[in-house]
Amino acid sequence: MLTPADFLKYTQWSGIATLVFAVLTILGFVFKWGIRFRLVGSAGFMLVVTGGLFALSLAPLSRTVIPGAVRYSLVYDNGATQAVITIPVEITPSELEATLRQAASNLYSYGRLGAMTQNQLNIRARTIIHPEPGVSVPLYLGQVKRSLSSREDSQMSVEIYQDKFAQLPQTTS
Protein backbone atom coordinates (compact mmCIF):
# COMPACT_ATOMS: atom_id res chain seq x y z
CA MET A 1 0.00 0.00 0.00
CA LEU A 2 1.29 3.42 -0.90
CA THR A 3 2.14 5.75 1.95
CA PRO A 4 2.00 9.56 2.02
CA ALA A 5 5.81 9.56 1.76
CA ASP A 6 5.55 7.65 -1.53
CA PHE A 7 3.07 10.18 -2.88
CA LEU A 8 5.39 13.01 -1.84
CA LYS A 9 8.20 11.40 -3.84
CA TYR A 10 5.88 11.05 -6.87
CA THR A 11 4.82 14.68 -6.40
CA GLN A 12 8.45 15.79 -6.66
CA TRP A 13 8.99 13.88 -9.91
CA SER A 14 5.70 15.09 -11.32
CA GLY A 15 6.63 18.67 -10.34
CA ILE A 16 9.90 18.34 -12.26
CA ALA A 17 8.00 17.03 -15.30
CA THR A 18 5.54 19.93 -14.98
CA LEU A 19 8.41 22.43 -15.01
CA VAL A 20 9.91 20.73 -18.08
CA PHE A 21 6.57 20.99 -19.90
CA ALA A 22 6.23 24.64 -18.84
CA VAL A 23 9.69 25.46 -20.23
CA LEU A 24 8.88 23.61 -23.46
CA THR A 25 5.62 25.57 -23.71
CA ILE A 26 7.43 28.90 -23.31
CA LEU A 27 10.00 27.83 -25.90
CA GLY A 28 7.16 26.80 -28.19
CA PHE A 29 5.66 30.27 -28.07
CA VAL A 30 9.02 32.01 -28.44
CA PHE A 31 9.98 29.96 -31.50
CA LYS A 32 6.36 29.67 -32.78
CA TRP A 33 6.35 25.87 -32.90
CA GLY A 34 3.28 24.20 -34.36
CA ILE A 35 2.68 22.14 -31.23
CA ARG A 36 2.75 25.08 -28.81
CA PHE A 37 -0.97 24.84 -27.95
CA ARG A 38 -0.66 21.10 -27.34
CA LEU A 39 2.19 21.87 -24.98
CA VAL A 40 -0.11 24.25 -23.08
CA GLY A 41 -2.55 21.37 -22.60
CA SER A 42 0.21 18.99 -21.55
CA ALA A 43 1.63 21.47 -19.05
CA GLY A 44 -1.84 22.10 -17.64
CA PHE A 45 -2.52 18.38 -17.31
CA MET A 46 0.79 17.84 -15.54
CA LEU A 47 -0.08 20.68 -13.16
CA VAL A 48 -3.36 18.92 -12.26
CA VAL A 49 -1.58 15.57 -11.78
CA THR A 50 1.03 17.20 -9.55
CA GLY A 51 -1.67 18.89 -7.47
CA GLY A 52 -3.51 15.58 -7.03
CA LEU A 53 -0.37 13.74 -5.98
CA PHE A 54 0.43 16.52 -3.52
CA ALA A 55 -3.04 16.25 -1.99
CA LEU A 56 -2.58 12.49 -1.60
CA SER A 57 0.72 13.08 0.16
CA LEU A 58 -1.08 15.14 2.83
CA ALA A 59 -3.93 12.74 3.65
CA PRO A 60 -3.24 9.58 5.62
CA LEU A 61 -4.31 6.60 3.54
CA SER A 62 -3.43 3.97 6.11
CA ARG A 63 -5.98 1.53 7.41
CA THR A 64 -6.37 0.47 11.00
CA VAL A 65 -4.81 -2.88 11.78
CA ILE A 66 -6.24 -4.73 14.75
CA PRO A 67 -4.36 -7.88 15.85
CA GLY A 68 -6.37 -11.04 15.25
CA ALA A 69 -8.59 -9.56 12.53
CA VAL A 70 -9.04 -11.53 9.33
CA ARG A 71 -9.43 -10.23 5.79
CA TYR A 72 -12.95 -9.10 4.93
CA SER A 73 -14.72 -7.70 1.88
CA LEU A 74 -17.29 -4.93 1.87
CA VAL A 75 -20.37 -6.24 0.05
CA TYR A 76 -22.91 -3.53 0.86
CA ASP A 77 -22.66 0.07 2.01
CA ASN A 78 -25.48 2.56 1.65
CA GLY A 79 -23.16 5.47 2.45
CA ALA A 80 -25.14 6.32 5.54
CA THR A 81 -25.88 3.98 8.42
CA GLN A 82 -25.75 0.41 7.04
CA ALA A 83 -22.87 -1.77 5.81
CA VAL A 84 -22.31 -5.50 5.38
CA ILE A 85 -18.97 -7.27 5.23
CA THR A 86 -18.29 -10.84 4.21
CA ILE A 87 -15.88 -13.01 6.15
CA PRO A 88 -14.44 -16.50 5.63
CA VAL A 89 -16.34 -19.53 6.91
CA GLU A 90 -13.35 -20.65 9.03
CA ILE A 91 -13.57 -17.72 11.47
CA THR A 92 -13.57 -17.90 15.25
CA PRO A 93 -15.59 -15.63 17.56
CA SER A 94 -12.45 -13.80 18.74
CA GLU A 95 -11.31 -13.22 15.13
CA LEU A 96 -14.81 -11.99 14.28
CA GLU A 97 -14.75 -9.44 17.11
CA ALA A 98 -11.35 -8.11 15.99
CA THR A 99 -12.53 -8.01 12.36
CA LEU A 100 -15.70 -6.11 13.28
CA ARG A 101 -13.66 -3.56 15.25
CA GLN A 102 -11.29 -3.13 12.31
CA ALA A 103 -14.18 -2.71 9.87
CA ALA A 104 -15.81 -0.15 12.18
CA SER A 105 -12.60 1.86 12.22
CA ASN A 106 -11.95 1.57 8.48
CA LEU A 107 -15.50 2.39 7.39
CA TYR A 108 -15.82 5.46 9.62
CA SER A 109 -16.17 8.66 7.61
CA TYR A 110 -17.15 12.23 8.44
CA GLY A 111 -19.22 12.33 5.25
CA ARG A 112 -21.74 9.59 6.02
CA LEU A 113 -25.30 10.76 5.43
CA GLY A 114 -26.89 9.32 8.57
CA ALA A 115 -24.99 11.58 10.97
CA MET A 116 -28.00 13.88 11.37
CA THR A 117 -30.71 11.23 11.83
CA GLN A 118 -29.60 8.00 13.51
CA ASN A 119 -25.98 8.91 14.30
CA GLN A 120 -25.00 5.22 14.32
CA LEU A 121 -23.22 3.08 11.77
CA ASN A 122 -24.33 -0.56 11.85
CA ILE A 123 -21.91 -3.04 10.24
CA ARG A 124 -23.05 -6.64 9.96
CA ALA A 125 -20.71 -9.55 9.24
CA ARG A 126 -21.87 -12.49 7.18
CA THR A 127 -20.57 -15.59 5.51
CA ILE A 128 -22.11 -17.94 2.98
CA ILE A 129 -22.82 -21.55 3.87
CA HIS A 130 -23.91 -24.36 1.55
CA PRO A 131 -26.23 -26.71 3.44
CA GLU A 132 -26.72 -28.85 0.34
CA PRO A 133 -25.32 -28.79 -3.19
CA GLY A 134 -26.67 -25.90 -5.24
CA VAL A 135 -28.01 -23.99 -2.21
CA SER A 136 -26.27 -20.95 -0.74
CA VAL A 137 -27.47 -19.32 2.47
CA PRO A 138 -26.12 -16.11 4.02
CA LEU A 139 -25.36 -16.53 7.70
CA TYR A 140 -24.97 -13.39 9.83
CA LEU A 141 -22.44 -14.00 12.59
CA GLY A 142 -22.28 -10.60 14.29
CA GLN A 143 -22.54 -6.85 14.10
CA VAL A 144 -20.95 -3.71 15.43
CA LYS A 145 -22.62 -0.36 16.10
CA ARG A 146 -20.53 2.76 16.31
CA SER A 147 -21.04 6.51 16.46
CA LEU A 148 -20.96 8.56 13.29
CA SER A 149 -20.05 11.77 15.10
CA SER A 150 -16.71 10.84 16.67
CA ARG A 151 -13.78 8.86 15.31
CA GLU A 152 -12.80 7.51 18.73
CA ASP A 153 -16.00 5.80 19.85
CA SER A 154 -15.78 4.50 23.41
CA GLN A 155 -19.43 3.35 23.28
CA MET A 156 -18.95 1.01 20.29
CA SER A 157 -20.95 -2.19 20.82
CA VAL A 158 -19.92 -5.50 19.27
CA GLU A 159 -22.43 -8.35 19.17
CA ILE A 160 -21.34 -11.89 18.33
CA TYR A 161 -24.11 -14.37 17.56
CA GLN A 162 -22.66 -17.44 19.30
CA ASP A 163 -25.61 -19.65 18.31
CA LYS A 164 -24.91 -19.04 14.60
CA PHE A 165 -21.39 -20.49 14.89
CA ALA A 166 -22.95 -23.93 15.42
CA GLN A 167 -24.33 -23.73 11.86
CA LEU A 168 -20.88 -23.28 10.34
CA PRO A 169 -19.42 -26.36 8.64
CA GLN A 170 -16.88 -28.15 10.82
CA THR A 171 -13.42 -28.36 9.27
CA THR A 172 -11.27 -31.41 9.90
CA SER A 173 -7.61 -30.66 10.52
With helices defined by DSSP (H or I, 4 residues minimum), what is the helix count? 4
What integer is the average pLDDT? 90
Report the sheet-strand fraction.
15-25%
Q: How many individual β-strands?
A: 5
How helix-rich are the residues, as a percent range?
25-40%
Quickly count the domains: 2
What is the structural class? Answer: alpha+beta
Lateral arrangement of strands in the main beta sheet:
1-2-3-4-5
**Elements, N to C (H/E):** HHEEHEEEH
Q: Any idea what the radius of gyration is?
A: 24 Å
What does this structure look like?
The protein has 173 residues and is an alpha+beta fold. The chain has helices at residues 4-30, 36-58, 93-106, 162-165, and strands at residues 73-77, 82-86, 120-129, 137-147, 157-160. The chain has 2 domains: 4-58; 73-165, no CATH class. Helix 1 (4-30) packs antiparallel against helix 2 (36-58). It is elongated and about 80 Å long. 16% of the residues are buried. The model has no long low-confidence stretch (mean pLDDT 90).
